[in-house]
Design goal:
Two copies of one chain form a homodimer. Chain A is of the alpha/beta class. Chain A has one domain: Flavodoxin domain (Rossmann fold). In chain A, 31% of the residues lie in helices and 14% in strands. In chain A, strands 1, 2, 3, 4, 6 and 7 form a six-stranded parallel β-sheet that branches. In chain A, α1 links the parallel β1 and β2. In chain A, α1 packs parallel to α6. Chain A starts with a strand and ends with a strand. At the A-B interface, α4, β5, α5 and β8 of A face α4, β5, α5 and β8 of B. Chains A, B: InterPro entries: Flavodoxin_fold, Flavoprotein-like_sf, NAD(P)H_dehydrogenase_qn. Chains A, B: This is NAD(P)H-dependent oxidoreductase.
Chain lengths: 247, 247
């Protein structure tokens, strides 16, 4: 398979970078084609703006998603976005490699999503979730954080890690139709010993070699929602839980 | 009070910008001092890197938070970070004004958090949550989104809006000690009528005039956790719910 690793760490000697380097080696050895978008090395611009567009549907008033669609159709998207899109379309698996900054992605990586997950191609209208434009491809997160694992969970200081990850795994990846594999998480990385780091690298290598055996995460299916994206009332869901949608 | 509005929209004529403009007028009329960081207008750089530091604790290996503390102490932080920090320290209330991009902040605003919430000043070690460095100040989100309100809630297509907001409201704002006021949310903004927009602006104005009457959101208190940030077992929490922290 073709693997794109989108990597965002400002220190090439970091443990996150070591994980990325290991992934390149392990996946290449398995016979996969691997490409890396090292956003810091590329000096990737994460700011979504009018400068991303060589032509405009509306010169006077910028509606970013509208201009994404217009420029996609006219092949006038900025060169760097076009280059990333080509890698994304080539990929069968996308690995996002980053340190957690403030319970989320570093801005340079969030900006890759903002600018590269273009409307019209990756999603559109009701072409979201299991109707999304990148359906057929897989994605996973491989990230590091400073917090220790005991800080995460129900009633624990930072709460459940799943809710921390939902805006990313559901709101970004599942939203465009990617099948989301379970994340690989390295806790407390700035503080752990050399031995513990090697243990994490070994685990990560094993994780990468067993992706096909892992159950993908479950996200909404548009089968369960009507054309206005309201929950269907025809029993697709089962009677146990009434949806409680905002008015 | 001193109000800092941190605003991130790439179209000055947008509804999000209209909300920001309204906030300036309403709050000024009430006698408050208001300053705006219009990140797009400022061409704010959201990328956290070695370039943020005029001096280095470690020249060979970049540990971003370490260098934030070192540069804070030595007054060698990049000028743009220093300028934003001064506004942040001056503020009693910080309003974050933005459109939702992919269930979160646009990258330019995420980068403001990444670069301006400096370690040593805003937080550090166990100086988090109700021990955080910005304790005594308040914050709120004022944001717009394309989705309709019925898409949010338990069992609804995008899930509960609170879990979407948790990485921001808990992971960024509460984490540094800010008291987080309930957000103001404008749904389906690209698609609603002129009348509906005026209604939202009116509501937002009223919301801003009644901040003192609103119950702040509740987040963890370090009173309930030990020095390793594990839940205390001495009954502070009550017997009803056993924490389930990762091992």
């Amino acid at each position: 398979m073709n693997v794109l690793i989108v990597h965002a760490h400002n220190e090439p000697g970091s443990f996150t970078a070591a994980m990325k380097n290991l992934a390149v080696v392990v996946l290449s050895e398995e016979g996969h084609e691997v490409r890396v978008s090292d956003l810091y090395a590329q000096r990737f611009n994460p700011v979504a703006s009018a400068a991303d567009f060589g032509s405009r549907a509306n010169q006077e008033y910028l509606v970013y998603a509208l201009e994404q669609r217009h420029n996609l159709q006219n092949a006038t998207l900025a060169e760097d976005i076009q280059a990333e899109l080509e890698k994304l379309q080539w990929a069968d698996l996308v690995i996002f490699s980053f340190p957690i900054y403030w319970f989320g992605m570093p801005a340079i990586l969030k900006g890759w999503i903002d600018r590269v997950f273009v409307s019209g191609l990756c999603y559109g209208g009701r072409r979201i979730y299991d109707r999304g434009g990148l359906k057929g491809k897989r994605a996973m997160l491989a990230f590091t954080l400073g917090g220790q694992s005991h800080m995460f969970g129900k009633g624990c200081v930072h709460g459940e890690i799943e809710t921390l990850l939902r805006p990313i795994q559901q709101g970004m990846l599942a939203y465009v139709g990617l099948e989301v594999l379970p994340p690989f998480i390295a806790y407390h990385v700035p503080y752990i010993s050399e031995t513990e780091r090697w243990d994490y690298l070994t685990s990560y290598g094993e994780h990468l070699l067993t992706l096909d055996a892992r159950e993908p995460l479950v996200f909404p299916s548009l089968d369960d929602f009507d054309t206005a994206l309201r929950p269907r009332s025809d029993g697709a869901r089962g009677a146990s839980e009434s949806p409680e949608c905002l008015p």
